[in-house]
């Protein structure tokens, strides 16, 4: 459009067109930082980042977010993300992604675990906007597959963001006897201000005032 309708030279239109989605993405990350600032921070004043630290964090987050959401997540492979030695003396690991993500977000970490002898599996938590409790059967099935594949009695669960709440819902539903360990990363255990701006039942459950 820039080259044909807006009258730009192709030398300017091509880089501008390529930069547009990256700049838009950077703007969305900046908006998220602004929302977090409005929500306030429990960090003591003497431990806050300061302007230089905040700028560095923003740039790092923007680069990671672009890599994840514009390159890693869109390339969904139909086969389950699984790997690692089976059987193995190391505990098998089930990876649970966060809101509006898919299992592809785990590929680098899954490879890292597999190299260290862990049998690994990750699932797509579908559909995207349902109740967190609705994901429990998918987790149970993935745990069953990992146990069957490895012969292990218990499985470790690693959940990012909403995935940590999914792990908790699974433990609450099943009793957690099959969980060797649960690790959560950036999980809103007491809710998050950002959930006010999401869609679906799961975001309502992740609000600060949610039961």
Quaternary structure state of the chains depicted: single chain
SS-based class: alpha/beta
Radius of gyration: 20 Å
Mean of the pLDDT scores? 89
What is the molecular shape?
A: globular
Q: Which spans have pLDDT < 50 for at least 5 consecutive residues?
A: none
Number of strands: 5
Quick recap of the structure?
This protein is α/β, with parallel strands linked by helices. Helices cover 45% and strands 11% of the residues.
Keywords:
single chain; 211 residues; alpha/beta; five-stranded mixed β-sheet; 6 helices; 5 strands; globular
Would you kindly provide a written description of the structure presented here, covering whatever features stand out?
The protein is α/β, with parallel strands linked by helices. It has a 5-stranded mixed β-sheet, sandwiched between helices. Helix 1 crosses helix 2 and helix 4 crosses helix 5.
How are the elements arranged and paired?
Blueprint: H1 10-39, H2 50-72, E1 81-83, E2 93-96, H3 107-115, E3 120-123, H4 136-150, E4 155-160, H5 162-174, E5 179-185, H6 201-205
Parallel strand pairs: 2-3, 2-4, 4-5
Antiparallel strand pairs: 1-3
């Amino acid at each position: 459009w820039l080259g044909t309708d807006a009258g730009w030279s192709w030398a300017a239109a091509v880089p501008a067109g390529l930069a547009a989605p990256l700049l838009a993405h950077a703007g969305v990350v900046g908006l998220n930082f602004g929302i977090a600032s409005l929500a306030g921070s429990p960090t003591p004043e003497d431990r806050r980042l300061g302007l230089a630290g905040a700028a560095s964090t923003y740039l790092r987050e923007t680069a990671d977010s672009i890599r994840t959401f514009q390159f890693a997540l869109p390339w969904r492979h139909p086969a389950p993300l699984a790997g690692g030695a089976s059987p193995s003396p190391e505990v098998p690991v089930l990876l649970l992604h966060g809101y509006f993500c898919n299992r592809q977000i785990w590929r680098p970490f899954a490879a890292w675990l597999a190299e260290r002898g862990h049998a690994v599996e990750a699932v797509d938590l579908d559909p995207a906007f349902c109740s967190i409790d609705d994901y429990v059967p998918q987790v149970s099935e993935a745990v069953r597959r990992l146990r069957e594949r490895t012969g292990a009695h218990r499985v470790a669960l690693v959940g990012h963001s909403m995935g940590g709440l999914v792990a908790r819902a699974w433990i609450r539903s099943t009793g957690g006897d099959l969980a060797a360990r649960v690790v959560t990363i950036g999980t809103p255990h007491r809710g998050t201000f950002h959930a006010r701006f999401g869609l679906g039942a799961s975001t309502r459950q992740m609000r600060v005032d949610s039961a």
